[in-house]
Structures are given as C-alpha cells and as structure tokens.
C-alpha cells in the first residue's frame, strides 16, 4: 500500500503584515476598554479587581444607571423597612458631602462597604445637615426677635433722665394739663386722642406728629395711659416739653379710682393675663421654641396692651375717642376720622372688605385657628375667609360700646384660649378682639391707616397719601433694624436740638 505523505503548509510572509495591522488596531482598544472598566470599578468605591464586570467588556449598560437603580432599591428597602437612624449614628454622621466621600474612601470603609451602609450614611448626613439649617433659621429668628423687642441703650438713658427730672425738678412734676385747662379733658367739643403706652420716645413722636399735622391743634386733647414704672418718666417728658395749644394728660393705671364693680371687671382681665403668662410656659401643646420667642415679646403678655378693651372704663366721661398705637406717625389731620359716622357700630377700622371684594388687611383665618372645632362652629357666626381689621388707628363710639357686652365677651375668649392650651390663636390682644367686636366694626377708608412699615417699605405714593403710618412689625423706627428711609420719616419729628435727646445720643 502506498503511503501518501502530506505536504508541509507554510504561511507566506506577506500574510503577517495584515495580521500585525489587525493586532495593532485591536490591542489598543482592549487596553482602553480595560482601563475604563477599572476606572468604573474605582468610581463605585470598590477596590477589588473582581468588581470589573468582564461580561461588559464589549457591550455593557451605563454603570451610572445601574448604580442609581441599586441606590434607589436600597433606599426603598430602608424606607419600607421603617429604619430609624440612631442618635449616636446621627451625631457621628459626616458634616458634608466632602466628608462623606473621604470617609467612604478610607481603607476601613472599603472593608465593610455595601450600598445599604452608603444609603444609611447619606441619610444620616442629610438629616444632620437639615437639622443644622433649621437650627440656624431658628437662631436667626430668635436674634431678630431679640433685636426687635430690645430697648436701645439711648432709650434707657432717656427714661432714667426723665425719672431723675421728675424727682429733682419741680417743673418735671408740674400739673398736666394746667388746672385752667382741666375741663377740656371731658369736653366733647374737643378731639380726644388716647395712647396706651410705656414708650416715652414713641409717645413723643406720636403726639408731635399729630400736632404738626393739625390745622387747629388747640382743639386736640391727648390722653396718655401708662403703667406705674413709666409714669414718672412719661410725666416729666411732657411737663418739660409742653404741647400747648394742644392739651395733654398723663395718667398711670395706679392712679385710676374706679368703683368696686368697674375695678372687679378690670381685675378679671388683669388676672387672666397673669394666668396666661404663667400657663404659657407650662403647657406642652405649644412648641417650646415658639413659647420662648413669644415670651420675649413685651406686647404678648403686657397688661397695657390689653387695656384697649377697657376704654369705656378708662374714659367714663367721654363718648368718643381716637386710639393710636405708639408706633405711628400722623401725617394728616384726624378731624375727618373724628367726625366719621360709624352708623351704630362701636369701632371704625381699616381692613374690612373693599368694594372690589378683596380684604384690605388679612383674613380671620390668618389670626384664628379654624382647625379647632370651637372656632369652626357655625353658631359662632364668623368664618375663615372673613376680612380682619387691625389696631393702629381706630375711632371708638364709647356710648355705643357701653350698651354691649363686648368687654365680657373678650374676657370669655381670653379664658377659652388659655383653657385650650393656647390652641385657638397665638398670644396677642387682637385675635379675641376680632371675635368680640364681630358685627360691630365700621369700615374706614384705607388712606387713614397704612400698616406694616415694620415689615417692608411700601410704595412711596401710599406713604404720601396715608394719614397715619403704622410701623407694625419688628422693624420699629427707634431700632437699627428698621428701614433707614422709613426711620427718617419718624425721626423728623424729634427735635435735634433737645438737650435730653442729645445727651442720650438719640439725635446727633
């Protein structure tokens, strides 16, 4: 049998050239693809070469999308599982994203790293950062509140100087008004304006601006009601700075001689404020930080701030009175407001519904908590969208008031709010007045009262057209935090040459 020998197959030399070219193309691609996979593994905080998914060498999904899906799945597992971050872990959480990256990139974290741990650390970091933001906001609010209620050193100086003048200077104790003008205090032919305040400087500006804006100041009678601690300073200021031809009296609450029945009525309000003052810090139903802020606000639990509800008792011989807050500047004559026909109502105020159907001020729902069934009851006769009104400048028909039970109703709601653990409204004198005066308020033109100047700067045209500018809000004009332009309007009524104001550096 003949054996056929196979011939040796030889590759021609010229075939090596295409092979080399092909390898020259493929090998760089393999190297670059391998490098990218290694980088992806490093980006996912995985140090092991096993993290490189070789099945995705040529074709693979977007690793960022895969990571996002895995993170979302881990987050949902944690959320559905109701996991709770331990306070110790929260305290140990990274302060920032940079700190988190450094921590997760450390060798110790590599050894125990998984997606669940990453999600937990991220949640703890975000929660810790949110708590820091909330704390910073609260601290800013707290400091602003302190700044808004604080009494500047210059005003303390003025009060002390006036108290000293009352003690050592006979002129500072002179009668207000002079005896020959005392009859005007109860004469209905004069325009009677009341201020209930313990702020000497603010009262001085309110009185000065009213007199300067009046064409006939001799027809104006001011009634300033203050407390015992401020009486000497207030009396001395106006005794040494006469308002003639206008007439002015200063009276402390301790100087009123009420009959027993009237005294008992007023003491019910005083006792209720004292109880509220005590309970306001005790009830757990109110946020602790809110209680701290409100307790610092003088008007919240100030007896003077609630004395407006006793105007008929404070001025038993008057039938009508205009009441100004002390943080106002009067720019136009108030005769038109005094002569206003209230059409049987008790109080005239800005803020009720305008002709276009919108509220001039805020709504009752902005002051009262209508989620409480006590206030949402239809029998009460007030609703959330009803227009509210405000203090600042009001005209009262005291004769009509005496025929009502407004004061008793006000006291009733003060007590109800305290008994409800202050859940009907935030502490203040206006909310119970909105209920007590309901149905007895007469709308007056908005041009009589421009409020909110302690919050923002209104349109210049509104300032020019308004009779009374009210610095309601934290930015009082005697504080540095107030608007410089608006403060200048207020300061224009201070006498820059007055020795007391200059010595206390109130004016330069």
From TrEMBL:
<keyword id="KW-1133">Transmembrane helix</keyword>
<comment type="pathway">
    <text>Glycan metabolism; pectin biosynthesis.</text>
</comment>
<dbReference type="InterPro" id="IPR002495">
    <property type="entry name" value="Glyco_trans_8"/>
</dbReference>
<dbReference type="InterPro" id="IPR029044">
    <property type="entry name" value="Nucleotide-diphossugar_trans"/>
</dbReference>
<keyword id="KW-0961">Cell wall biogenesis/degradation</keyword>
<keyword id="KW-0333">Golgi apparatus</keyword>
<dbReference type="GO" id="GO:0047262">
    <property type="term" value="F:polygalacturonate 4-alpha-galacturonosyltransferase activity"/>
</dbReference>
<dbReference type="GO" id="GO:0000139">
    <property type="term" value="C:Golgi membrane"/>
</dbReference>
<dbReference type="GO" id="GO:0045489">
    <property type="term" value="P:pectin biosynthetic process"/>
</dbReference>
<keyword id="KW-0328">Glycosyltransferase</keyword>
<keyword id="KW-0812">Transmembrane</keyword>
<comment type="similarity">
    <text>Belongs to the glycosyltransferase 8 family.</text>
</comment>
<feature type="transmembrane region" description="Helical">
    <location>
        <begin position="20"/>
        <end position="39"/>
    </location>
</feature>
<protein>
    <recommendedName>
        <fullName>Hexosyltransferase</fullName>
        <ecNumber>2.4.1.-</ecNumber>
    </recommendedName>
</protein>
<keyword id="KW-0472">Membrane</keyword>
<dbReference type="GO" id="GO:0071555">
    <property type="term" value="P:cell wall organization"/>
</dbReference>
<dbReference type="Pfam" id="PF01501">
    <property type="entry name" value="Glyco_transf_8"/>
</dbReference>
<dbReference type="InterPro" id="IPR029993">
    <property type="entry name" value="GAUT"/>
</dbReference>
<keyword id="KW-0808">Transferase</keyword>
């Amino acid at each position: 049998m003949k054996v056929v020998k196979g011939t040796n197959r030889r590759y021609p030399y010229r075939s090596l050239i295409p092979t080399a070219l092909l390898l020259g193309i493929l090998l760089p691609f393999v190297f670059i693809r391998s490098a990218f996979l290694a980088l992806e593994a490093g980006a996912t905080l995985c140090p092991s070469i096993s993290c490189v998914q070789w099945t995705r060498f040529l074709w693979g999904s977007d690793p960022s999308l895969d990571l996002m899906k895995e993170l979302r799945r881990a987050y949902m597992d944690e959320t559905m599982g109701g996991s709770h971050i331990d306070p110790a872990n929260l305290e140990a959480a990274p302060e920032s994203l940079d700190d988190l990256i450094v921590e997760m990139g450390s060798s110790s974290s590599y050894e125990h790293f998984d997606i669940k741990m990453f999600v937990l650390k991220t949640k703890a970091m975000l929660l810790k950062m949110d708590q820091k933001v909330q704390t910073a906001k609260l601290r800013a609010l707290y400091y602003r509140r302190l700044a808004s209620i604080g009494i500047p050193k210059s005003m303390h100086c003025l009060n002390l100087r006036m108290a000293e003048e009352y003690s050592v200077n006979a002129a500072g104790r002179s009668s207000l008004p002079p005896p020959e003008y005392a009859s005007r205090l109860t004469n209905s032919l004069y325009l009677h304006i009341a201020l209930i305040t313990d702020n000497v400087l603010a009262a001085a500006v309110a009185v000065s601006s009213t007199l300067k804006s009046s064409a006939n100041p001799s027809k104006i009678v001011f009634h300033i009601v203050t407390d015992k601690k401020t009486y000497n300073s207030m009396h001395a200021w106006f005794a040494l700075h006469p308002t003639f031809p206008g007439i002015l009296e200063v009276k402390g609450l301790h100087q009123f001689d009420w009959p027993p029945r009237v005294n008992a009525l007023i003491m019910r309000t005083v006792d209720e404020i004292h109880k509220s003052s005590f309970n306001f810090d005790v009830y757990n139903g109110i946020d602790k930080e809110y209680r701290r802020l409100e307790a610092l606000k003088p008007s919240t639990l100030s007896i003077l701030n609630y004395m407006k509800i006793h105007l008929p008792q404070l001025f038993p011989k008057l039938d009508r009175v205009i009441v100004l807050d002390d943080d106002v500047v009067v720019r136009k004559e108030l005769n038109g407001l005094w002569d206003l026909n209230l059409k049987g109502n008790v109080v005239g105020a800005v803020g009720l519904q305008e002709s276009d159907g919108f509220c001039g001020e805020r709504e009752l729902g902005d002051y009262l908590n209508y989620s409480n069934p006590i206030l949402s009851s239809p029998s009460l006769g007030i609703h959330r969208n009803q227009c509210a009104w405000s203090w600042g400048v009001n005209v009262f028909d005291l004769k009509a008031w005496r025929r009502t039970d407004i004061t008793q109703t006000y006291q009733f709601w003060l007590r109800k709010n305290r008994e409800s653990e202050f859940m009907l409204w935030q502490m203040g004198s206006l909310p119970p007045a909105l209920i007590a005066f309901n149905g007895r308020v007469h709308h007056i033109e908005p041009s009589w009262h421009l409020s909110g100047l302690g919050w923002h700067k209104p349109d210049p045209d509104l300032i020019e057209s308004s009779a009374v500018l009210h610095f309601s809000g934290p930015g009082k004009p005697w504080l540095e935090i107030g608007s410089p332009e608006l403060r200048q309007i207020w300061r224009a009524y201070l006498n820059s040459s007055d020795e007391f104001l200059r010595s206390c550096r109130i004016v330069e």
